[in-house]
Design goal:
It is a single chain. The protein folds into two domains: about 100 residues, no CATH class; about 120 residues, no CATH class. It has nine helices and eight strands. The protein has a six-stranded mixed beta sheet. A two-stranded antiparallel sheet has the order 4-5. Strand 2 and strand 3 form a beta hairpin. The longest helix is centred in the middle third of the chain and has 18 residues.
Length: about 250
């Protein structure tokens, strides 16, 4: 875990705890119930001298944002800030440490006053995976040529963050791919750089799709086969779909 600024929310642990609470509230849990669950889930961190204070800061932050800070959490935050708990990671740079102390003091001062305009409880926004299993995609590359890809999975288990598993084909042409290209299943294997012949098989989430969607066209459907690739540990943005084929061709000198 790490921090990228001195502000309270610019920290991985704080972001994780707040995200946990918000996720439960989107499912219909009350603020207090969601915070109680977060305490249970992050119980192991509460005794840690560095991460424990961050958990309390996160709970105080999210409670103030959506309602009222529980007295026991407020008192814990006051005590941590008063005693300098959780500041060891900032101690190497006196100037940064001073800025962190100032941020904490301001945070506590804000918590001491009721929130005049608490935010409404967050609601889940449905963002399904853009494509269905078996969709055949014609992908316009940045060079104005076309490549091809097959949608192998559509995972909508997370209501807000649907994902597609997409396998790229070894196809590059000024002409959009036809059905024969997809039925031939000539998967794209990455032999440049450090890829060591791995297939271009990646999960793509919903973020960034809107900006790239004009590059993709569903030009048909194919029945998925038992031998088709079905798993990947790689995740990236839709901006990257169609990039690897260009890198492969350049590596081949084509």
């Amino acid at each position: 875990m790490g921090a990228w600024d001195v502000s309270i929310t610019s920290d991985d642990t704080v972001a994780d705890v707040v995200g946990h609470v918000v996720s439960l509230m989107k499912r219909g849990d009350s603020l207090l119930s969601a915070c109680a669950d977060a305490e249970r889930v992050y119980q192991a961190l509460l005794d840690d001298p560095d991460d424990g204070p961050l958990v309390w800061l996160a709970l105080a932050h999210v409670q103030w944002k959506y309602g009222t800070v529980a007295p026991r959490i407020m008192e814990r935050v006051r005590a941590d800030v008063r005693c300098g708990n959780g500041l060891e990671r900032w101690a190497e740079d006196p100037q940064v440490l001073a800025r962190r102390r100032t941020a904490l003091d301001r945070f506590v001062a804000r918590l001491e006053l009721p929130n005049p305009k608490p935010s409404a409880a967050p609601k889940a926004v449905s963002r399904p995976a853009p494509f269905g299993e078996g969709d055949c995609l014609a992908v316009l590359t940045t060079e104005g040529t076309y490549t091809a890809a097959i949608v192998l999975k559509a995972d909508n288990s997370n209501l807000e963050y649907g994902t597609n598993l997409v396998g790229s084909l070894d196809y590059l042409s000024p002409v959009a791919p036809d059905s024969a290209v997809f039925e031939q299943r000539q998967w794209l294997y990455l032999r440049h750089g450090n890829w060591n012949g791995a297939p271009d098989l990646v999960w793509y989430g919903v973020h960034g799709f809107r900006a790239e969607r004009k590059r993709f066209s569903v030009v048909g459907q194919t029945k998925l086969r038992a031998g088709d690739p079905a798993s990947s540990n790689s995740f990236t943005s839709w901006k990257q779909l169609g990039v690897q084929i260009l890198l492969c061709r350049r590596a081949r000198g084509v």
